[in-house]
Amino acid sequence: MANDNQQLHKESIKYLTTAPLRENDPKFICAISDVAYEFLTTDEAGLIVQLYFKMKNIALRNKILYGLIRCGNLELKDFFEKAYKKERYLDMRLLAIHGLAQYAPEEEIEKVMQHFLKILIKRPETTPYNYQEYEFLRSPFGLPLLIKKYRYPCFEKTLQQVEKQYQDMPEAFRGHFTFDDNGKAVQLRTPSETKQMIERFFASQHRY
Prior knowledge:
11 helices, single chain, 208 residues, 2 strands, globular, 3% strand, mainly alpha, two-stranded antiparallel sheet
C-alpha cells in the first residue's frame, strides 16, 4: 500500500509540475488529492506552496493546508505566516496556526492569536449564525488540540470566546457536525435535519 501511495504521489507531482492551473479540472483535482505529504521533498513542497498561493478554490487550498501541517520535518514557517494572512475564514486561519505553532515560539503565536481573537469577536456583527466556523474551532482537531499540544493560555482564551459566541447562537445552529482528532468531518445530524431546523428558525423569525 505504501508503494502504491508513493507511486501515485510521484505521478501527481510530475503532472502538477507541468500541468496548467485548472482548478475545476477533475484530473487536476485528483492530482492534488493524490499528493502524499509524508513523501514530500523540499522541492516538491515548494511546488505545492506555489500552487496554493495561485489557487482561488478554497476546498483545494484547505486540502493543501491539511497536508502541509503534517510536514513538521520541512521548514514551512514562512508559508504558514503568509497562509494565515491570505485566508479569510477562521477555520482556514486556524489550520495555518496549527502549522505555524510547529516553528514559532509562544510569543509569536500569542501575537497571531491576539489578531485572530479580534476577528473572532467581530464575527457576530457580520455573521450572526456562524456555526460552520465555530464547529471547527471548538472541535477536537481545532483549538482543543492546540491547547493539549502546547498549553498556551492564548489558545485557552480564544476557545472560551468561541464557546461564548457559539452558545449565544440559537439552538437551531448548534450541534450539526464536528471534526474528529484527525480533522475529518463528522456529521451529527443528517443534512435534511439540519436544513429543517434552520428553515424552522428563519420561518419563526418572520411570524408576527
